[in-house]
Amino acid sequence: MHSSFSDIRDPLHHLFSHPTLSAHLIKDHEHTIAALHASVNPKLFKTGRKAHLPDPDTLPVEVANIQRSLDSISLSSWRLHTDAVTFMRTAKNSDHNILERMKTSASSGPEIEMRQAVLTISIYNRVTWGPSYVSRSSQHALLSSQTLKDLYNAIPCVSNHLPPEAGSSDRTCDSADCESGCLICIEGLAYGVGEGQEDYAHKLVSQIDDMTHKSRPNVTKATTSLQNTTFSSLSLRINEPYWLIHRGNCEHFLVVDQIRLAHPSDPLSSYPLTLQITPALLDLCRACTKVPAVWSIVGDVRLGENPCVLCEPCWRNMGESEEDEVAVFPIANYACAY
User: Fold this and answer.
1) How far apart are CA 152 and CA 160, in angstroms?
2) What are phi and psi of 234, to 5 degrees?
3) How far is Cα 240 from Cα 253, in angstroms, rounded to an integer?
């Protein structure tokens, strides 16, 4: 059986060019997403006016035919399952993006080849108000010839730009100093930065070996490192969250959204590409509560919190404390992470 791209493109173009058909599909999809979220987290959805879905017998003929065609699809992966709700955006909830245009890599990167695959990977973080929930922080496009280290370097994370702590040097910890502090776990294999070295992957496997047999996950250290593992050498699952930890206890989750062949309209170089970055929620100044804080004050009895975060004008008006125990630290610069 021979088929072409037009066999898929033409029906889809006809479908979404028809106002009645496209409106029905969008409304039905949003209702399905909302119902899945409500079944998993009923407390998050307040009882109110329910969405009105027309009686199937009253649907126009063309809409009923499309719906019957969709219902007859036998693929098990076609249906949405509750396991994917955590990584599924709620209905009518679009992504915020601080980028006005696609962000290219600082280096030129490899040039794309038409037989290469392009991967779209989303990065999720735990939310502070609910550790069991995650939210998307960024999305990137990479080539199958690139490595896990290329992806790691493209991820914007404020942990890479933390200010120095008390008693440390006067500079932040750069990638060369903290290179050993990274681990990506994919399909039961832990990829660190070194081969045969005691990196994060080695320490994780050592901790797992000390666990009881019943609670012990099946994780082993990979034979290759992050910088030597290309995406083309991996077996990846779509929508499967993979674990990343670095800088001590900073966690992220990698989700492969799409794997496709390169298209002539794709950029020719400068991969990885950053497609989306979610704006960070900044701590406001505790004094004026109007602008983001830039200083963290520790041990100052004049303030009602310890530590207390203040903006530059409020801290300047407050004046420096004469107590030796008071320490002032700059708050992490989110602009550097972007």
Assistant:
1) 11
2) -105, 155
3) 9
**What is the number of alpha carbons within 13 Å of residue 180 lying toward its C-beta?**
11
CA distances from residue 236 to 187, 230, 231, 259 in whole angstroms, order as listed: 8, 12, 8, 9
Tokens of residue 316, six digits:
């300047």
Chain segment 228-239, per-residue pLDDT in tens: 999 999 999 998
Q: How far apart are CA 281 and CA 284, in angstroms?
A: 9
Residue 258 host element (H or E): strand 250-261
The pTM of this model reads 0.66
Q: Any residues with CB less than 8 A from the CB of 191 and at least 6 apart, and which? A: 148, 183, 184, 185, 201, 222, 224, 225, 226, 229
Chain segment 303-319, per-residue pLDDT in tens: 888 888 999 899 888 88
Tokens matching residue 334: 């989110």
Phi and psi, residue 202, nearest 5°? -65, -40
Residue 329's contacts (CB-CB under 8 Å, 6 or more residues apart) are 163, 164, 165, 166, 295, 296, 298, 307
Round the average pLDDT of the chain to a whole number and report it.
81
Task: DSSP letter for 129, please.
Answer: T
Question: Does the pLDDT value for residue 172 go beyond 50?
Answer: no
Q: What CA dihedral angle connects 285, 286, 290 and 292, to 10 degrees?
A: 20
- CA 213 vs CA 63, 210, 221, 336: distances in Å: 54, 9, 18, 43
Helix%, strand%, coil% for the chain, nearest 5: 30, 20, 50
Q: For position 168, what pLDDT does the model report?
A: 43
Task: Give CA angle at 175 (247, 158), nearest 5°.
Answer: 55
Side-chain-side CA neighbours of residue 6 (13 Å): 1
82-94 pLDDT, tens digit each: 777 777 766 655 6
Strand partners, 245: 183, 251
State the DSSP code for 20: H
